[in-house]
Write a structure and sequence with these properties.
Distance between the termini: 13 Å
Shape: elongated
Strand order of the largest sheet: 12-25-26-27-23-24-13
Number of strands: 27
Length: 555
């Protein structure tokens, strides 16, 4: 499944174009704006553009659409490159829209000389008023009929910095009565006296996306310009710019449905707000749907690529259950992640009939799904830790774990029987006294009696203190009480839960940031990159072990 693309309508278009020799080689591009970190929604576009190029032996450019100096930063440029590489893709060329600013400026002047562009001085509010509505045609700007000479002079003054921000724009002269509102004299250039991350202060006018993007694709020889559905209504303008700017190459824009997921924020503006308001600890917070956040939490590039393959490519918008990504994560990690013992909420157990200073070792599989990963030795002695949930003083119906008088198996070790409970002043169990049966050691062939439950444990003296972090969605979009609330009022107060517990020392002795483990009964965990120190390991839970989700629901 990995690194492939589903058969889809875009693939069919490419196959026909190659068969008819319309193109001898396809060239795609992934064109993010460097105004934030990439999120899971971008992964679909990355996998589609790079995947199609690989399948048809073509090329893919990574191009930054950096036409807005106010929002763009080198930090975002670097993070995007890192994310694309992490997903497993290599671009043919690394390019910037700003590489073409000189060419774009000359093409804008060409449109002016052809009588197809003019400098307009309407305010933004006036421009909206003149633009009309979906049901009513727009009105011509009073500056629409300026002469070519006057427009060229004013445009040159815009470029030289003679006018303040927002005072003038360059607009295409198309059709103010067009039913496609994007054709109603769209803005091509605006003034912005801000330093650009790539060109510095060379420019104080910048092209708008619809103008710049069309030219970039044409200049680079892009054969199939693949974008999301919201640009479908912009396609006539895309084609108009390429034609009227007299570009030698004509790309084809093709739209597909973007990736939407339940309980997942896909708006860069909202994600930035979460960072700016310190709701999260950065763009790579494990609760964020950014690729850097998913990476830090512990998701693998394979799981994300497989998700994108499974959902396929369509024209109709849909919402994918976020559990689908968790399904692919489990499928990827089950044969890879070493198994370890972790105690999240420890309860001490003392085996009263076990020799005082004796230590023995039981053999544990490193991964039951992968025999090649071998086994390891786990120390066993008189004092252990178990999970608090594995003991109940007054058991509920069908509770088969440890309670007074009941016997359970310690995983890989012996049967133990609860005899006494030590409590604190509030009546809470703080220590359990048990006896063990030395005849019942795992692997001994003992068949004398059976128990109904097996629980995991850790040697109290050898257990390594650590921190565990558990996550829920930042925004629960399926909650009725969230309807109509401001975005920041919908934050889930339980999105992060931090617990201190213990981990098996031997299993994690060489652990480093981003290493992944399967902890018995608790799920898959990843060593955190930000809070882990040489003195303390911090683990992020990626996903629990099991889910009722079935991937064939989406097939």
């Amino acid at each position: 499944m990995d690194n492939k693309t589903q058969s889809n309508f875009i693939q069919a278009i490419i196959e026909e174009d190659l068969a008819t020799h319309k193109h001898e080689q396809i060239i795609t591009r992934f064109p993010p704006e460097p105004n934030g970190y990439l999120h899971i929604g971008h992964a679909k576009s990355i996998c589609l553009n790079f995947g199609l190029a690989k399948e048809f032996h073509g090329k893919t450019n990574l191009r930054f659409d950096d036409t807005n100096p106010v929002k763009e930063e080198d930090e975002f440029v670097k993070s995007i490159q890192e994310d694309v590489k992490w997903l497993g893709f290599t671009w043919d060329q690394l390019l910037f829209a700003s590489d073409y600013f000189d060419t774009m400026y000359e093409k804008a002047k060409l449109l002016i000389r052809k009588g197809l562009a003019y400098v307009c001085e309407l305010t933004p509010d006036e421009m909206r008023e003149y633009r009309g509505t979906l049901n009513e045609p727009g009105r011509n700007s009073p500056y629409r009929d300026r002469s070519v000479e006057e427009n060229l002079e004013l445009f040159e003054k815009m470029k030289s910095g003679a006018f303040p921000d927002g005072s003038r724009v360059l607009r295409a002269k198309i059709d103010m009565s067009s039913p496609n509102i994007n054709f109603r004299d769209p803005i091509l250039y605006r003034i912005s006296h801000n330093t650009h991350h790539n060109t510095g202060d060379k420019w104080c006018i910048y092209p708008m996306y619809d103008f710049a993007h069309s030219l970039e694709d044409a200049i680079e020889g892009i054969t199939h310009s693949i974008c999301t559905l919201e640009f479908e209504d912009h396609r006539p303008l895309y084609d108009w710019v390429v034609k009227e700017c007299e570009m030698e190459h004509t790309p084809r824009q093709i739209e597909f449905a973007r990736l939407n997921m339940t309980n997942t924020v896909m708006s860069k503006r909202k994600l930035k707000l979460l960072v700016d308001e310190k709701v999260v600890d950065g763009w790579d917070d494990p609760r964020m749907p950014t690729l850097s956040g998913l990476r830090r939490r512990g998701y693998t590039p394979e799981s994300i690529r497989n998700l994108c393959f499974e959902i396929g490519v369509a024209k109709a918008s849909s919402v994918v259950d976020s559990q689908m990504l968790d399904y692919f994560l489990r499928e990827d990690l089950l044969p890879k992640a070493p198994l370890g013992m972790a105690i999240i909420k420890p309860l001490k157990v003392v085996i009263t009939n076990y020799p005082e200073n004796e230590v023995e070792y039981v053999e544990i599989e490193n991964n039951p799904k992968n025999e090649d990963m071998g086994t390891r030795k786990l120390p066993f002695s008189k004092e252990l830790y178990i999970e608090q949930e594995d003991f109940m003083e007054v058991p509920s119906k069908k509770y088969f774990r440890l309670f007074p008088g009941n016997e359970v198996r310690l995983k890989g070790a012996y049967f133990i029987k609860c005899n006494d409970v030590i409590k604190d002043s509030d009546g809470n169990a703080i220590e359990i006294h048990v006896t063990y049966d030395p005849e019942t050691k795992s692997g001994s062939g003992f068949t004398g009696r059976k128990v109904k439950s097996t629980i995991h444990w850790l040697n109290a003296k050898e257990a390594l203190p650590c921190e565990f972090r558990f996550f829920e969605p930042l925004i629960e979009d399926d909650k009725e009480e969230n309807q109509g609330k401001h975005f920041l009022e919908q934050i889930n107060p339980n999105s992060l839960c931090i617990k201190s517990g213990y981990i098996e020392r031997e299993a994690v002795k060489n652990a480093k940031p981003l290493d992944k483990f399967q902890f018995v009964r608790h799920g898959f965990f990843n060593v955190d990159t930000k809070y882990t120190t040489p003195e303390k390991l911090v683990f992020n839970q990626i996903v629990p072990l099991k889910s009722s989700f079935k991937v064939n629901n989406y097939s």
